[in-house]
């Protein structure tokens, strides 16, 4: 036994220098070249073309003797009018779906933003009265920090937290001043093109936030500065020309909802944006959702985000009489999937790139979809073309088993090495939990969060099932398949075949028993290496060695016993601690049990919620009989 803490590097856990700047780890690192190759070879032509187009524009546009900002300004009508009704009504539905704690959090964040103080990824900059868009600390922080700053979330926060715009005149004046100053300091084409202020993803978010804000003000008979309306229009024009077909995934859906919102808000100007957005939503409905209704990036956080956008688009387009059959079908299937995946407490499990506190709560998303007149269409999680999640409920809890492949081959950005991983809830509370995400920088925390060692599964030697590197790179893919499945039982296998490293096979069987669950692991490989089975517990779970011996552990919460964990077939068992990234930028330590075994042998794990001294499981009896026969 050992109480050693297993963490990422103490010397440089965030991949930064002493000054805080990001380390220079990217595809320029030779070790990542094979990963870049496998990532590129799985990309679609539109993605590769987009990479070269972006690099070309970034290099050429700032050097051209053309005032691109002025060109966009000329395309903005001299007299702008808005139709705020549909956007305002949709905003009200979203606001009324929020929990009181979410509204309180938005209210506080809006007040902070109005005072020039911004906290993202648990990192804060207090700008005071005027935001310095070139502040040196912005570039020291993860790139996601700047994206959030330049998406102007404060506008949505204030509109979601307050019914009346007149109740927060001071906040409104400050936020509007920030937007006008940003526009003056960041003209299109003056700096890095399609970077920083003009990343289309950031443009999409601020267009949506500003549209909601403008409709919220108009609903309270408060005029929005004409200059702000012109900025919204100009940003929508830019977005229309820079839709992220090359990136795809959730980015494309963010583009789509921003264009729909702007098209509906500026409906009298016949922009055609709502039609463009509708086409994008229908394209994504065909390409981005799996047979069980899950979003193909397999991140519950992004699933909630894209489902929320589909609900918004459905609500807005329906209000202006547009046909929304494709959007409705995709949204209701996605809603059905979320209804089956949501934790008992109404939160998302942190599968793949997911954290709490980023998207709205899963329970809020469900309520918002219902408010938009969407009803869930549940399709079986057992569908062979689904995400590959299976749930095993008992009277006291639920175990989730991941028997699916990682995300889409052409879009591995948010995928983890979580093949055959499990999660567990007892009495509605999390017991076994995934790791979450610290940030998206190419640092050691990022590598750890995506690694097999960060998940509740088995690892052969020190091998990663799929090589990972950089921020989003992923190497040659492996395969996962279901071998046998029946009521309360499933056997699945994960195979890694490669000439560049060890090949192996991992078989895992999960069975529901009267008092809990049994998991049997077997790993065999060509190098004869030992394997390790890891179980990471939620930070609220206390784990200690049982009085019955070193192969059994008790799990408690707030001093109360909730479960026991018993192992057999192991050479060594260690109780240690590992990092948990439940929110962006935050790290906690939590208990982890690592079980080491020789190749080809079985490791039996039994989670019991009904402690009966001396009880022997069916799998244990079979294992003992097998050992007796072999002897």
From TrEMBL:
Q: Tell me where in or outside the cell this protein is found.
A: Periplasm
Segments carrying the region annotation (Disordered) are 1-32, 610-631
The segment(s) forming the Heparin-sulfate lyase N-terminal domain are 113-358
User: InterPro entries per the record?
Assistant: Chondroitin_lyas, Hepar_II_III_C, Hepar_II_III_N
GO cellular component terms attached to this protein's record: periplasmic space
* Assigned keywords, A-Z: Lyase, Periplasm, Plasmid, Signal
* Molecular function (Gene Ontology), one example: lyase activity
Q: Does the keyword Membrane apply?
A: no
Kindly indicate whether the keyword Transcription regulation belongs to this entry. no
Sequence ranges assigned to domain Heparinase II/III-like C-terminal in this UniProt record: 382-591
Compositional bias per record (Polar residues), positions renumbered to this chain:
614-631
Q: What is this protein called?
A: Uncharacterized conserved protein, heparinase superfamily
Kindly name one Pfam family recorded for this protein. Answer: Hepar_II_III_N
């Amino acid at each position: 036994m050992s109480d050693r803490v297993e963490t990422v590097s103490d010397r440089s856990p965030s991949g930064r220098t002493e000054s805080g700047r990001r380390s220079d780890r990217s595809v320029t690192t030779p070790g990542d070249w094979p990963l870049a190759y496998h990532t590129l070879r799985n990309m679609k032509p539109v993605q590769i073309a987009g990479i070269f187009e972006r690099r070309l524009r970034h290099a050429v546009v700032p050097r051209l003797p053309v005032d691109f900002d002025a060109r966009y300004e000329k395309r903005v009508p001299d007299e702008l009018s808005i139709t705020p009704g549909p956007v305002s009504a949709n905003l009200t539905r979203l606001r009324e779906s929020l929990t009181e704690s979410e509204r309180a959090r938005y209210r506080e964040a809006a007040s902070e933003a109005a005072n020039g103080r911004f906290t993202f990824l648990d990192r804060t900059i207090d700008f005071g009265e005027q935001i310095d868009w070139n502040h040196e600390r912005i570039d020291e922080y993860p790139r996601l920090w700047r994206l959030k700053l330049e998406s102007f979330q404060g506008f949505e926060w204030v509109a979601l937290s307050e019914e009346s715009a007149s109740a927060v005149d001071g906040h409104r004046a400050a936020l509007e001043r920030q937007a006008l100053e940003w526009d003056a300091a960041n003209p299109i084409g003056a700096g890095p093109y399609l970077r920083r202020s003009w990343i289309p993803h950031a443009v999409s978010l601020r267009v949506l936030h500003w549209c909601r804000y403008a409709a919220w003000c108009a609903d309270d008979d408060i005029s929005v500065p004409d200059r702000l309306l012109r900025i919204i229009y100009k940003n929508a024009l830019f977005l229309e020309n820079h839709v992220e077909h090359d990136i795809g995934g959730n980015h494309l859906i963010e583009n789509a909802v921003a264009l729909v919102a702007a098209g509906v808000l500026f409906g009298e100007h016949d922009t055609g944006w709502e039609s463009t957005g509708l086409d994008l939503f229908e394209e994504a409905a065909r390409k981005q959702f799996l047979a069980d209704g899950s979003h193909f990036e397999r991140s519950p956080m992004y699933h909630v985000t894209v489902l929320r956008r589909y609900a918004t688009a459905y609500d807005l387009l329906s209000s202006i009489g547009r046909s929304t059959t494709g959007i409705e079908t995709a949204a209701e299937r996605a809603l059905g999937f979320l209804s089956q995946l949501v934790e008992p407490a109404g939160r998302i499990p942190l599968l793949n790139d997911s954290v709490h506190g980023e998207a709205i709560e899963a329970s809020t998303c469900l309520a918002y979809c219902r408010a938009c007149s969407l009803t869930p269409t549940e399709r079986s999680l057992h569908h062979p073309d689904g995400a590959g999640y299976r749930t095993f409920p008992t009277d006291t809890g639920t175990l989730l088993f991941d028997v699916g492949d990682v995300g889409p081959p052409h879009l591995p950005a948010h995928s983890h090495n979580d093949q055959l991983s499990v999660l567990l809830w007892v009495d509605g509370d999390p017991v076994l939990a995934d790791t979450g995400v610290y940030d998206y920088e190419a640092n050691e925390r990022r590598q750890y969060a995506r690694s097999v060692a960060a998940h509740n599964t088995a690892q052969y030697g020190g091998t990663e099932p799929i090589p990972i590197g950089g921020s989003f790179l992923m190497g040659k893919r492996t395969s996962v398949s279901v071998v046998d499945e029946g009521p309360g039982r499933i056997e699945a296998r994960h195979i890694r075949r490669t000439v560049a490293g060890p090949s192996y096979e991992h078989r895992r069987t999960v069975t529901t028993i009267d008092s809990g669950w049994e998991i049997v692991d077997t790993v065999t490989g060509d190098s004869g290496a030992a394997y390790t089975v890891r179980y990471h517990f939620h930070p609220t779970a206390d784990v200690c060695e049982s009085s019955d011996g070193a192969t059994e552990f008790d799990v408690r919460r707030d001093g109360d016993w909730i479960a026991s964990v018993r192992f057999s077939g192991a050479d060594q068992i260690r109780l240690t601690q590992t990092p948990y990234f439940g929110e962006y930028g935050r790290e906690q330590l939590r208990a982890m049990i690592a079980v080491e075994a020789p190749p080809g042998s079985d490791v039996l794990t039994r989670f019991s919620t009904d402690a009966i001294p001396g009880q022997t499981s069916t799998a244990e009896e079979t294992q003992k009989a097998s050992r007796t026969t072999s002897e």
